[in-house]
Amino acid sequence: HRHLLGIEGLSPLDIEALLDLAEAQVEVSRQVEKKKSTLRGRTQINLFFEPSTRTQSSFEIAGKRLGADVMNMSVASSSVKKGETLIDMAATLNAMRPDLIVVRHHAAGAVHLLAQKVDCSVVNAGDGAHEHPTQALLDALTIRRNKGRIQGLTVAICGDILHSRVARSNMILLAALGARVRLVAPSTLLPPDIGRLGFETFTDMRKGLDGADIVMMLRLQLERMNGSFVPSVKEYFRFYGLDQEKLSYAKPGALVMHPGPMNRGVEIASEVADGAQSLIREQVEMGVAVRMAVLEALASHLPNR
Ligand code: CP
C-alpha cells in the first residue's frame, strides 16, 4: 500500500502485520535513545484542518523518532482563510516535494481526494465521520497487549456512533479480527442503516454492557449536531454515561477505553476514566507506536527522487 486511507481495504494479515510492527516500536519508544533513521532525509507534512491534541502530536513525535523532517502546517493561519481550495493547497504543498502528508479534514472523503492529487504517500488522520484508521490500530494494539488476543472478545462501542469515525474504523477492524462487536447508543445516535451491517445494537446501556470484555466509550460530538442535541447533556449522562454502577454489568475485570478528548461527566465519569480498569493513558502511548509503524510501513513506497 502507498497510502493509509482507512481500515477498509486492509486484510486481517495487513492489520496483524502493522500491530506486530507497532509492538516493536513500543520498545523503541521506551528506550533512552529513541531515534531511528528509517525516514532520514524524508519530509513529512502534518495538515490538520480540525483541532487535535493526540493525533497531531503523536504523528509529529513518530516522524521525528524515525528521523524525518516534520512540518506542522498551520491551517488556521494559511491561505485557506483567503479562499484557497483544498486541491490548490494540495498542489502547492506537493510542489515542495514532501514524501508524506498526514491529513485531518472535517469532510468525509477529503483525504481520498487529496491522495489523488499528490505524488507522495498520504495518511488519513480522520476525515469527517468516515474513518480514523490509526485510532482503530492503536485501540487494537492496546486490547491485544492487555487481553493477549482480539478474536472472540466482546467489545461494546458506546455513545455517539452516528458521528464517530473512531467507531466506524473500529467496527471494521474488530470484526475483521474476529471480535464480537456490539453498538450501544440512543437510537438517535445510531446511523439509520446500521442494521444492514449486521452488528448487534442496544439502546439500554446495562444490557449492552452485560458480559462485555471491553467497553469503548465515545465522545458526544456536539460540534457535529448543529445545536440540535436533545435531551440535555445531564440526562445523557444518566442513561449513557459510564459510571462504576453501569460498568459493573460488564465482565469482572472488563477494560475501559476512550479515544479522547473526554468530556468528563457527559459520556464518562471521572471515577471510571481514572480508575483501575481504564486503559486511556495506555491508548495514548500506543498511539505513538502505531503511527511509527504506519510511517515505517509506508517507507518502502515513498517516492525515489
Ligand atoms: N483521539 C483523537 O483523535 O484525539 P485528537 O482529536 O486529540 O487527535
Automatic annotation (TrEMBL):
SUPFAM superfamilies: Aspartate/ornithine carbamoyltransferase (SSF53671). Carbamoyl phosphate binds at residues 54-55, 104, 132, 135, 260-261. It comes from the Bacteria. Residues 2-144 form the Aspartate/ornithine carbamoyltransferase carbamoyl-P binding domain. GO terms for molecular function: amino acid binding; aspartate carbamoyltransferase activity. One of its GO terms (biological process) is 'de novo' UMP biosynthetic process. Transmembrane segments: none annotated. It catalyses: carbamoyl phosphate + L-aspartate = N-carbamoyl-L-aspartate + phosphate + H(+). Belongs to the aspartate/ornithine carbamoyltransferase superfamily. ATCase family. Catalyzes the condensation of carbamoyl phosphate and aspartate to form carbamoyl aspartate and inorganic phosphate, the committed step in the de novo pyrimidine nucleotide biosynthesis pathway. Reversibly catalyzes the transfer of the carbamoyl group from carbamoyl phosphate (CP) to the N(epsilon) atom of ornithine (ORN) to produce L-citrulline. PANTHER family: ASPARTATE CARBAMOYLTRANSFERASE, ORNITHINE CARBAMOYLTRANSFERASE, MITOCHONDRIAL. This is Aspartate carbamoyltransferase. It comes from Microvirga thermotolerans. The gene is pyrB.
